Amino acid sequence: LVNCFPKPYNRKAFWICSMLILSLMFFFPLRQELLKWNGWGYNDSKFIFNKKGQAEFTGKRYRLGGMVLPTFKEWIEKTFGASLEHKTTSRASLNVNDVPPSIVNEEFLQDLRATKISYSQDAEDRVFRAHGHCLHEIFVLREGMFKRIPDIVVWPVCHEDVVKIVELACKHNLCIIPFGGGTSVSSALECPEEEKRTIVSLDTSQMNRILWIDEKNLTACVEAGIVGQDLEKQLAESGFCTGHEPDSMEFSSLGGWVATRASGMKKNIYGNIEDLVIHIKMVTPRGIVEKNCQVPRMSTGPDIHHFIMGSEGTLGVVTEVTIKIRPVPEYQKYGSVVFPNFERGVACLREVAKILRALFASICLFLLFAKGHALKPQVASIFTSFLDGLKKFYITKFKGFDPNILCVATLLFEGDREKVLQHEKQVYDIATKFGGLAAGEDNGQRGYMLTFVIAYLRDLGLDYYVIGESFETSVPWDRVLDLCRNVKERIVRECKEKGVQFAPLSTCRVTQTYDAGACVYFYFAFNYRGISDPIHVYEQIERAAREEILANGGSLSHHHGVGKLRKRWMKESISDVGLGMLRSVKEYVDPNNIFGNKNLL
Amino acid sequence: MKCYTPVIYKGLSPCKPNAIKSAVLQSEQVQYVIKQLAKEMGESPDIIQEEATEILDEMGHRMQLGAVRFFAFTLSKIFKQLFQRVCVNEEGMQRLQHAIQEHPVVLLPSHRSYVDFLMLSYLLYTYDLALPVIAAGIDFLGMKIVGELLRRAGAFFMRRSFGGNRLYWAVFAEYVKTMLRSGYAPIEFFLEGTRSRTAKTLTPKFGLLSIVMEPFFKREVFDTYLVPISISYERILEESLYAYELLGVPKPKESTSGLLKARRILSDNFGTIHIYVGQPVSLRTLASGRINRCPYNLVPRHLPQKPSEDIQEFVSDVAYKMELLQIENMVLSPWVLVAAVLLQNLPAMEFELLIEKTLWLKGLTQTFGGFIEWPDNLCAKKAVLSGLTLHSNIASLVDGHVVLNDKGMEDGAVGEMVFRHALAVLMCATYRNQLLNVFVRPALVAIALQMAPSFRKEEVYSCFNFLRDVFSDEFIFFPGISLKDFEEGCFLLTKCDAIQTSQQEIYPTDKGSGTVSFLSAMFRPFVEGYQLIFRYLSKEMKEAFTEKQFIPGVRNFVFQLLEKGSTQCYEALSSDMQKNALSALVQLGAVKKKKMPSGFTYNVNQEAVSKILDMFDDSADAIPEHNEFLFPEYEILIEPEEPEFPADSTDDEQGAEDTSKGAKEQEELGAAGTADEAFQSLDEETLEAMAKHETEEEKIFQMFKKQVAAEPEQIIRYCRGGEGPLWVSGENRPEEKDIPNCVCGAKRIFEFQIMPQLLNHLQVDSLGESIDWGTLVVYTCADSCGGGSEYLEEFIWKQDYSMGCTL
Lengths: 601, 807
Prior knowledge:
The complex is a heterodimer of chains A (601) and B (807).
Chain A: H1 11-22, H2 29-34, E1 47-49, E2 55-57, E3 68-69, H3 72-80, H4 106-115, E4 118-120, H5 123-128, H6 135-143, E5 152-155, H7 159-172, E6 175-179, E7 199-203, E8 210-214, E9 219-223, H8 228-237, E10 240-241, H9 254-260, H10 267-270, H11 273-276, E11 277-284, E12 287-289, H12 305-308, E13 317-324, E14 326-327, E15 331-339, H13 342-355, E16 362-367, H14 384-397, E17 407-415, H15 417-433, E18 437-438, H16 441-453, H17 457-463, E19 466-476, H18 480-497, E20 505-513, E21 517-527, H19 534-551, H20 570-589
Chain B: H1 17-26, H2 28-41, H3 45-59, H4 65-82, E1 85-88, H5 90-102, E2 105-109, H6 115-126, E3 133-137, H7 144-152, E4 155-158, H8 166-182, E5 187-188, H9 207-217, E6 225-233, H10 239-246, H11 256-261, E7 272-277, E8 281-282, H12 283-287, H13 294-297, H14 309-328, E9 331-332, H15 334-343, E10 348-350, H16 351-367, E11 371-372, H17 380-390, E12 395-398, E13 401-404, H18 414-451, H19 457-470, H20 482-495, E14 499-501, E15 506-508, H21 513-540, E16 545-546, H22 547-564, H23 575-588, E17 591-596, E18 599-604, H24 606-618, H25 684-693, H26 696-709, E19 716-718, E20 748-754, H27 759-762, E21 775-781, E22 795-799
Parallel strand pairs in B: 1-7, 2-5, 2-6, 3-4, 3-5, 9-11
Antiparallel strand pairs in B: 6-7, 6-8, 10-13, 12-13, 14-15, 16-18, 17-18, 19-20, 20-21, 21-22
Helix pairs in contact in B: 1-8, 2-3, 2-8, 3-8, 4-6, 8-9, 10-18, 15-16, 15-18, 18-19, 18-20, 18-21, 21-23, 21-24
Pathway (chain B): Membrane lipid metabolism; glycerophospholipid metabolism; Phospholipid metabolism; Lipid metabolism
Pfam families (chain B): Acyltransferase, GPAT_C, PDCD2_C
Membrane topology (chain B): Peripheral membrane protein
């Protein structure tokens, strides 16, 4: 029977014939078409060097789009020792012949067809869902091929579809890997090489409806596949928002947030995902797990939501989530403060977090100029427009400060106008005590915009032998400075030891503030010319950096999750017994390891 | 004037000493302890804060460039007066310069003299490096002007002991850590805690080291560099002072007038100083993979925290490692070799022989990795001569012989003589000791080789291990790597052809016997000294005692033995050795150390100490050679046999072989007694009664047993011309005709017999090479012919146990 379909269900053929039946439901592959197959984000948005050799950001999706960044080329050359003449080029498109064949049991296919759930065995579809956005994954896409990828992709459109798929998987003993937005940076989506069973990639992207909105209780029930920006857009139509804005919100899905314990930039007002979620419905091989009511809090033993949040696809598929919503804020205001150095900045953030707590939406501290030779101020960075303002500012007001160690905090206030203005004043008053000076609204807004485009930067670097990554941690306040200094130093040192010939860029920012600590982001990139196995070197350095974080009292992860990338430290992080507790949950819920992506445990 | 712009730590935010002081006082750490104490003692925090301020003022340094310049100026004058040369390894200084810029630096110099830290500060100043802040003992404050000057030159003072005072500890620790964290200046202190009076490296103290390591453990700094520095003196400024001190003549308190008196020595010559600045060791590298970070992550960092066991172990390992690095780079002068040779050849040694031996020892030292300063073109004679000239106070050349200068007053009392001689020996030993650090591993293998009952590797190793444990406070061994030390020792001995090793065995080579005996002779003062001290403890110390009682007690004990001449071990007078021996026993569990309000008291476990003594005695440490040809050496104790029955004659033979002077303390090994007439005078009836039950054969053996039972360990029975030997068996007894006459024609008569018990001590019971006898009876010339000193052949009769007789 298999032989009757030498290329069973070529995606396009499948699309054409399915259209006849399901019509509108089938705009979904378009989304995949919009996105890069081997890099971050939209196809039309990227950094390039134009004919004049000046950097430019293409596309119209972002405010930076179409802008020329005159000093950027110099910056990248100086910082990394990269040169425009030394270019690597990615393959233009996927070579289908390299892709591992799809091995699917015909009986399963028959059962699947009977459910009318759409599916695909097309190579591009499968490769697209075989990875997240870790550096090594992108590198493989550009230059090699994964050893193991999903054998089949299925697109359930509702909770019941998922139930059916999980039942089928149990029946035929298959492995399911749920796939949401595909923005994982923890190797969570990689297929375990040694998996012998058929791997089914369960793409939730078609479960993207808001099922209902309850204005009295300010909750909304949403299907888990919805992407962050769509959720906000659709809620906004009714005058609401969730306020959950992770940097990846354009692409990441609600289910993914739940599965990884995501955190949003505006969590000070709205809370992180664990604070936002009211009710979760999850399909597991044992059946469906959910609570019996939608209440703000209950005391019924350990919260089962906490088994689900952060389970990283090892227990089941989250299908529907009831989430808190808020009316769209009346007034929004950006702001920025410049500090003479990082130490002062951190001290100010700590004070603001202590006094104002949840009264402002977001505060985020950048170390503007890296110390020493790595990043000279005059070639200041891609933050050009952002910096032009700041530079002028510091020239006029900051004479006497060392521009090499300036740092800036960006601020976002939300709420009713009066309150916002009041809080803004309070923040600036505190900042003054720490030597900070208000640096204008524009600069703040530009700063936030940058968080979205920063991810595009890596793809450009890859073209010029520069590899890089960001990673995060959470840390108690008193250790923030020591941790930042030590991790950066460790990175520089490891690079030297591993034979990296150019000084690496290693810098950090504080992105979230809590009562008891902060979330710190590190950016790390280096020019790998002259190194035969850059990815291996990179991974060693990243591992050393993580070791350093842990040694400095930082956490394994604040919101990226563990995946397979950070599994080795789980035991140390949550103790033997803790790991055993998680294992026993997994054992009960999924004894046959149907959800076999091997994350976490 | 010199332009002084030192390189500084890259992360340094410049600050004044006073700013550091107030930072210390305001720090969470100190404030926490102040609050705690206030709560406990019910006093207001202000008062305690006040107290903390005082402590800090007493302790703190006030580094001022002016003072530094003044100091540098005077020091250069003084140093030029005192020393011929100061040699420094340039590349070490360059490495140090890099290290100072990169991470906080801790300087760990060896400590042999007060000159150490003056010299080091002077050196850093000369090389345009940041002046170190120095943790110095508070005794210096006694020196009014100098104390203040030192303070201005960057010294800070710590009380010698402040274990109980939490406030002091908190302020002190925080002060050190603040300076370290800010990278203010290199911190310098002495791992050994005090000046080594013996020039042997002292076992490290951990307190300060763990303080300076803590900022790294808590990740307040990225890394810390530990820099071992070896300072070696051709002649130590305080040499005679040390010797007096070791002998218990109290040390003069440091005072300014003392220092002024020290000006007298300015006219003297103290040779060369070698300073070797070692490779900076990264604490991070040392710690990688060793430290469980959890304890530091789960408690706020400002809370005082008792270091966990693995941290303590790590600190101790680092301390030992640093000291071993110091030792490795210590420069040895030719005089050190001369002293080592001379001490083995007292009272006088031929000059030519001394040169020859010194040259030989130079080769050996180099094989063992010693770092000898011996100019290429310098001939041995000149080297030895220049050593003798420099140390003319210790030894001198008289009529082609080198002798120790131990003649104080010509007609001194015995005690005076002993003291004089001990002084000279100890001073000389100070120089030999510098060699011991390098030689200790191979030498202990050599001694173990002589101690061990066989050449089997395990047995040699177990002896080595025993010695290493006993001497753990005397020499520096990295904790826990006994086997590695053993292998290193074996390797070095093999390298110089002194031993050969096979899979199972280690045996000395013929060629290497000289080396082996030299090595064991080199360490004999320690082996013997420890035995004396142990003996004292096991015999004399029945009750709890303190160190203050112990030292004079053992000193008197040894002194008396020396006066009597029953030992030659002058070094056992050294209080250093006495303390080390005591603490070794504490570590071996043979002495219990208890903390009392007044200090520590000790309790001896007699049994355990004698067991340790047995280990030494069983071994043949006193035998120069232990090989296939010679049996182990013992002392024979001779006592008259107490007759069980009235005897008609009781000859006193005691003078016959008097090798047992002062033998009262010796353990009895064997005894020979008067030949027993008792045998003859045995009641006929008893004999007959016995005969009724036993054969003639058994009767004789029973007699033998009965006689021996009185003194079961006897090995020899002496009774010249007596009635005859004590036979073990009725068989194979010689007739008169069996015993040939002497060459002079006289009849041979019984003189003594050797008992089978001796077999226990000969260690020849291994299969294939064992020997056996029932008794050996020696007959000698009745006329005692040939009264001269030449050897004569005599007659021996060997009787075995009869076949029918089973033991």
